[in-house]
Amino acid sequence: MSRVRYVADTLEEAVAAAHRGHGASVRIVRAGRCAPGSGARSGFEAVVEPPVPCLRARRAAREALARAVVAARIAADEAGRTASAAGAAGAAAPAVLARLGARLRAQALPEPLVIHVLDRVASEVRGADLEEIEAVMRAAAVGAVASLLPTSAAHEPFRRGAAGRPWVVALAGPTGVGKTTTLAKVAAGWRMQRGLRVGLIAADAFRVGAFEQLRTYARIIDAPVRAADGRASALSALEALAECDVVLVDTPGRGHRDAARIAEVADLVEAVRADETHLVLPGTAGAQALEEASTAFARVRPTRVVLSKLDESEGLGALVGAVRLGGIPASWFTTGQEVPDDLERADARAFAERLVGGAGA
Ligand SMILES: Nc1nc2c(ncn2[C@@H]2O[C@H](COP(=O)(O)OP(=O)(O)OP(=O)(O)O)[C@@H](O)[C@H]2O)c(=O)[nH]1
Ligand SMILES: [Mg+2]
């Protein structure tokens, strides 16, 4: 498959030229400063891989490329003549931009989002002086990444009114992602820091060790716990915890390809009429598994997403893709195995700082 290069004075212009030439959905395989040995004297390039081009499309692409090259040359000549004040910063910017791009890609941020972030960074950096160029670009990247991740605090449970029922919060998700540990962290915070009456339901009680795990946490925080293994017993467990302010429901982990058993979880969540359902997605999974999980677990109608195991993640960007696919805001982050300490309210900036990394990342 042949590739087409669009060269321009800025990354934005090169990408815009590529989109003009091939449409907004064209696959951009490289975007950044012109590669050494590419023949271009300076500037940025966007390299696209058009889908099996017909002759007419190829001619149009060649013409668009020629137009972009001419435009870039004119712009470069003008820039050279005027030697603008941004010149010093401009000389350092491409190297920092390239490092940022490499970092975002290494973090598995989907390619269209990488280009979006680099575009914003490039547009915000004009006029910065050489001393501060790296810090300015990093701050712009953090801002751009943060704006990609929707967050929303989990509901803060109020004390249950005399006539009300407990606020019911369910956790669901693939196997081993940290549902039970997260539930214990949340329960401990609400019980010990806010003094709420917290009840727990282990809805995967038939699995060896599952009830015991939750009962151990319940004992530590002095909270009542009930076991359930289906719709009817979940309802009686809820009935037994009717005096609580809030009830947390732990559901069994399911493989994201196991549609029938995910449907059972959905049935259970619906039976207890959960006020909030948090889907737990781990930072340790790859982009494809996360997207499949996000799609498969849409069945349980999650209202929030918990991003777990951020401490072990090597590709935080894949989580951004999965959260955006589900269209549901993130509620909490989990950052380790310690109960209750390793739990944070979801904060898009904190997440973006982790993803973009420090200087030299
Ligand atoms: N590094 C790290 N480990 C975690 C985190 N949260 C949970 N774990 C660990 O992940 C493992 C699985 O945690 P569980 O809470 O049992 O996971 P689960 O989703 O309830 O698992 P199933 O019920 O079997 O589907 C345990 O060893 C936890 O200590 C986290 O934020 N970071
Ligand atoms: Mg569990």
Spell out the blueprint of helices and strands:
Blueprint: E1 4-8, H1 11-22, E2 27-33, E3 44-49, H2 55-82, H3 87-106, H4 111-124, H5 133-146, E4 167-172, H6 179-193, E5 198-202, H7 210-221, E6 225-227, H8 231-240, E7 246-250, H9 259-271, E8 276-282, H10 287-296, E9 304-308, H11 316-326, E10 330-334, E11 343-345, H12 348-356
Parallel strand pairs: 4-7, 4-8, 5-6, 5-7, 8-9, 9-10
Antiparallel strand pairs: 1-3, 2-3, 10-11
This protein binds guanosine-5'-triphosphate and magnesium ion.
Guanosine-5'-triphosphate (GTP) is lined by residues 175-181, 253, 308-309, 311-312, 334-337, 342.
According to CATH, the homologous superfamily of the largest domain is: P-loop containing nucleotide triphosphate hydrolases
Give the strand line-up of the largest sheet.
6-5-7-4-8-9-10-11
Q: How many discrete structural domains?
A: 2
Q: Let me know the average pLDDT.
A: 83
Question: Can you tell me the CATH class of the largest domain?
Answer: Alpha Beta
Terminal CA distance reads 33 Å
Please provide the count of β strands.
11
**Main sheet specs:** 8 strands, mixed
What is the helix fraction of residues, given as a range?
40-55%
| CA gyration radius, whole angstroms | 26 Å
